[in-house]
Amino acid sequence: MLPEIEHLLVIQDRDRKIREIDQELVNIPKKEEEIRNRLEDDQATFDGIKGELTQNEIAMKNLELDIETRRDSIGKLKVQQYETKKNEEFRKMGGEIGRYEAEIIATEDRELELMELAEEIKVRMKSAAEDRDDSQTMVDDDIANLKIAMENMKKERVEFVTNRSGYAEKVDEDLLDTYARLFKAKDGWAVVGLIDGACQGCHMRVTKSTELDVRNENVVTHCQNCGRILYWWTDEADKVVSRCE
Ligand SMILES: [Zn+2]
Known about the structure:
The chain is mostly helical. It has helices spanning 3-83, 87-168, 173-185, 208-216, 235-238, 240-243; strands at 191-195, 198-199, 221-222, 229-232. It folds into two domains: 19-161, Orthogonal Bundle (Helix Hairpins), CATH 1.10.287; 173-243, no CATH class. It has six helices and four strands. A four-stranded mixed β-sheet has the order 2-1-4-3. A hairpin with a 6-residue loop joins strand 3 and strand 4 (229-232). It binds zinc ion. Zinc ion binds at residues 199, 201-202, 204, 223, 225-226, 228.
């Protein structure tokens, strides 16, 4: 294999790995957001229950006010009853007092129901708070792991870049430019094998003379269809990249 092809194959491998890392790194903020979003459901559940408790407290206060109002009315009626001299009026007021007293008892019963409901809501709220705290722990762990993965990827990237430049120094500048242009235009496959006379980039058959040039390995040869740099593919050629790890 031509030494420059061998070098380009290693460079291409490193470039693909660098590109993969860059794509991963770009996605990290999104991944972090997805992890944090997992907390929102738990927080919303907790907030919902807390809201129920607040509503229940308001309802209880209103019942208290109802009871107070009726007690006031009873007090006033009793004074009026004491002052009146008419039997009919006295009886009528007595009836009203009785009605208010019955309403107070019913309201107190309702108040007791709401107090029991408050206890039940508090139990649910505690459990929701625990679920939320558990999720928070998991989210913190996942984010910590994501940060570690990110740091490792950055280190790996530096290694690939260093390793790549070592090989790039050995390749003629014009060829390196051509390679870079092809790498960009051909989605990361600038240098491809020729198998059974077909370019592995565009899968078209090349001419006999191109095939011969590739096989002879004297000059850098391009696919006349897609322009990619071709090499004579063998099992051994496949191992070039892994030998240079
Ligand atoms: Zn081609």
